[in-house]
């Protein structure tokens, strides 16, 4: 599937070819801290299938719990998280952050990882009152 997206301010843009079955939810504490939310949704893409346009994203390197470096790409202006990858063999697979994808409503997660860190209240969301708009 062809997707395109951008950061919140529009300075960093991209296009990519992805497999819509490769959408996952991560509940790790790093994703919680980096998003300021309960989890992060990511779709995987081959590095060669991601084409950047506009300004270059900034890079932050985080050492994961497994001891490997995780490269976190984000917009230097608005701070929107955009991509993650690793080094060496891990650099061939990029995670595209779901919130930056224009076609995100078409991309449903197929799995969850790091569930031991999941917020215990996630299963209760359906019971909360909600509004279609604020």
Topology:
Elements: E1 2-6, E2 12-17, E3 23-26, H1 29-35, E4 40-46, E5 50-54, E6 58-63, E7 69-74, E8 81-85, E9 93-97, E10 111-113
Parallel strand pairs: 3-10
Antiparallel strand pairs: 1-2, 2-5, 3-4, 4-9, 6-7, 7-8, 8-9
CATH architecture: Beta Complex
Q: Which regions have little confidence, pLDDT < 50, spanning 5+ residues? A: none
Helix proportion: under 10%
Question: Biggest sheet, open or closed, and with what strands and sense?
Answer: 7 strands, mixed
What coarse outline follows from CA principal-axis ratios? globular
What's the tally of helices?
Answer: 1
- Top CATH class: Mainly Beta
The secondary-structure element order is: EEEHEEEEEEE
Number of extended strands: 10
Radius of gyration in whole Å, from Cα? 15 Å
Q: Would you tell me which CATH topology applies? A: Metal Binding Protein, Guanine Nucleotide Exchange Factor, Chain A
Number of domains: 1
